[in-house]
Amino acid sequence: MFVRLVPILLLSLFVLTSCTGGQAAESSQPDYDTTKQMVADILKTDEGKKAISEVMADETMQDLVSLDASKVEDAINKSWTSEEGQKFWKERFEDPEFVAAFAKNIGPEQKKLVKDLMNDSDFQKQMLQLLQDPKVQEQMLNVMKSQDFRKELEKTIQESSETPMFEQKLMQTVQKALEEAQSKQKEK
C-alpha cells in the first residue's frame, strides 16, 4: 500500500511546491514541517482523497506502481540465471566485504534451515542414502588421502595437542593406562 502512495505523495509535494513558488521567492526557504503538514492536510481532505482515487484508477499509474508477482519472479530468475546476472553475482561474491555481509545477514536463516532439516526424517533418510553411496564414499576417501587434507589434519592435531585441556586429558589417559597395567601385573 505504501509503495503505491509514494508516487502520489511525490506528485502532491511537487504540485504543492510549484504552487507556492511565489511565496518561496519571498522567503529564503520553505519550512519543511509547514510543507509536510500542508501535504498531510491536503491528502486528508475529500478533494485529496478523490484525487488519489482518480490517479490510482488510471491504468498507466496502476502499471507503474503495481508489482505483478510473475514479473517480480521473472526479474529474479533473469538476474540469477542470465549471463549478465551470473557475472554480476560472481563479481559480488569475490568481494570479501560483500561475502561477509551476505553471510552475516543470511546466516541465522541458514542455521535455522539446517536445524529444521536435521529434524526432518525424510532429509535424514536421504543423507544416509547419500553417505552410503559407494561413489560418495570413494570421493570422501580420496579427499582424506590427499596431501592437502593430511597437512590440514596434522596442523589441527598439533594445534589441539598444544591446548591445556588436551594435555590434561592426555595425562589422565596415560595415568589410567599405567594404573590398569600395574593392576594387571599384580594379578599375575
UniProtKB/TrEMBL annotation:
Annotated signal sequence range: 1-24
Alphabetical keyword list: Signal
Record InterPro entries: GerD_central
Domain Spore germination GerD central core: 66-177
UniProt-listed NCBIfam families: spore_GerD
Protein name: Spore germination GerD central core domain-containing protein
Source species of the chain: Terribacillus saccharophilus
